[in-house]
Inverse folding.
């Protein structure tokens, strides 16, 4: 395309207005044209001998330390037919702090193809390099801060893609480097349920502009370690108020959470202890009042009952004729009910007058044998004993108290099987000498409601019971330093009495 005078003038005007310096030389490297920018840079007055440029002008590689070889000057290479583009160079002369340049050169050929000269374009990139250095420094500082804080930190764009993360997030996501996370979304990293929650949080933050605080249990995908974190999310805006995305920081609060859980547990335990202490206090007050009442009432009732029982003997002796059979049945009923009332009174007295055991050597095997031979055990109840045959298991005990406690367990077992069943009684000792006595029945078991108040006075599941039997039995056993516990109540009931080693 041929260029007219107008176009030529425009081209010269454009070259004159360029910020970049333009130098045109002939084949002997003598300047033939410079634009104003080149004049301001002092390019027209270059030393005629290029081999001296490095030393005279202080020309270095971009590192500002390595001298620039004369043979690599873009101008000389262009004169040899080798074009150059954006060759970095640092020139110290003429500027207090030097100047960074990018040089591009090309050979100028005549119509015959011979090189007639060269054109070199000088671009001052000092400010750009300074800005780049500042950006790199700022980026380095930001990276140092992000990677050294003990928290997980990130920045996402509006589409939820990670654009900036620290090393802790990369590690939590199961990645080695932060670059492995950049550009990913939550769905690329976390389980779907978690990712959906995170995206919902981000959308809420971007829409409302309010901070979002989330406390959650978190799993490190690299180590599978679970811990608690507290996350704070907020939206980020540009200078015009447009939403760019969200940022967040997640802080490890495991220690605080565990301390809080431990505190709650301690409060619960102390509350439970206080409740139990209050219940024990109420129970002791009730026991004391009940003991006083039981002792007085029992003595007042036992004497009339004895008189009634004696009267039945007299009536029975005088009314023996067949025509008095109905009267005889009535006398038998009176006799049985008086005996039952006496059992209740005995229980009241036992409860009211629990004393320090009067210990003497006694064979526990013999105590159980006498107890299980009682005539009040009905024939439809089969008693199965597992007692030692080579050891009488002699211990210092209060025989009356121990028999009373065991009698209560046996009687409860028998009464739990009105239609008959099997009553199992076993006696064993451990190597240290502690005694274990187990009484088990085939009855209907004990409901959870009854079980909760099993050893409390005045709680009974039997229509005619007053709820003192097990309470008294436990007091007898505990007076011996032992324990009585319900072992199983799902099918029948199984109680264990343990006495300490001698």
């Amino acid at each position: 395309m041929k260029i007219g005078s107008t176009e030529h003038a425009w081209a010269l005007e454009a070259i004159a207005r360029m910020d970049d310096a333009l130098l045109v030389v002939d084949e002997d490297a003598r300047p033939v044209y410079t634009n104003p920018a080149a004049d301001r840079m002092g390019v027209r007055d270059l030393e005629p001998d290029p081999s001296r440029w490095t030393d005279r002008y202080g020309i270095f590689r971009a590192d500002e330390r390595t001298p620039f070889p004369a043979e690599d000057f873009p101008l000389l290479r262009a004169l040899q037919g080798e074009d150059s583009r954006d060759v970095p160079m640092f020139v110290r002369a003429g500027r207090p702090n030097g100047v960074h340049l990018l040089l591009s050169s090309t050979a100028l050929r005549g119509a015959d193809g011979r090189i007639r000269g060269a054109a070199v374009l000088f671009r001052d990139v000092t400010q750009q390099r300074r800005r780049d250095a500042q950006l790199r420094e700022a980026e380095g500082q930001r990276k140092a801060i992000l990677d050294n804080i003990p928290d997980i930190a990130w920045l996402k764009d509006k589409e939820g893609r990670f654009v900036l993360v620290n090393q802790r997030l990369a590690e939590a996501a199961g990645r080695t480097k932060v670059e492995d996370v950049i550009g990913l979304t939550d769905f690329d990293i976390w389980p779907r349920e978690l990712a959906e929650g995170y995206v919902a949080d981000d959308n809420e933050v971007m829409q409302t502009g309010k901070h979002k605080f989330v406390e959650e249990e978190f799993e490190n995908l690299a180590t599978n370690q679970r811990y608690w974190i507290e996350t704070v999310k907020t939206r980020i805006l540009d200078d015009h108020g447009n939403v760019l995305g969200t940022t967040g920081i997640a802080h490890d609060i495991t220690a605080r959470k565990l301390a809080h859980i431990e505190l709650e547990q301690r409060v619960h335990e102390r509350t439970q202890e206080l409740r139990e202490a209050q219940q024990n206090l109420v129970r002791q007050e009730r026991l004391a009042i009940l003991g006083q009442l039981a002792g007085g009432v029992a003595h007042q009732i036992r004497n009339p009952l004895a008189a009634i029982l004696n009267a039945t003997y007299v009536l029975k002796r005088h009314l023996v004729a067949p025509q008095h059979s109905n009267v005889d049945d009535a006398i038998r009923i009176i006799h049985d009910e008086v005996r039952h009332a006496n059992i209740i009174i005995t229980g009241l007295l036992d409860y009211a007058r629990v004393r320090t055991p009067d210990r003497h050597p006694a064979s526990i095997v013999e105590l159980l044998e006498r107890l299980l031979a009682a005539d009040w055990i009905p024939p439809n109840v089969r008693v199965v004993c597992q007692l030692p045959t080579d050891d009488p298991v002699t211990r210092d005990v209060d025989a009356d108290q121990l028999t009373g406690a065991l009698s209560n367990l046996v009687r409860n077992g028998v009464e739990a099987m009105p239609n008959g069943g099997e009553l199992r009684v076993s006696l064993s000792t451990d190597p240290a000498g502690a005694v274990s006595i187990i009484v088990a029945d085939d009855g209907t078991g004990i409901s959870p409601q009854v079980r909760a108040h099993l050893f409390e006075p005045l709680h009974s599941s039997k229509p005619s019971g007053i709820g003192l039997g097990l309470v008294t039995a436990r007091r007898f056993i505990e007076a011996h330093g032992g324990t009585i516990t319900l072992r199983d109540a799902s099918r029948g009931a199984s109680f264990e009495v343990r006495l300490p080693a001698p």
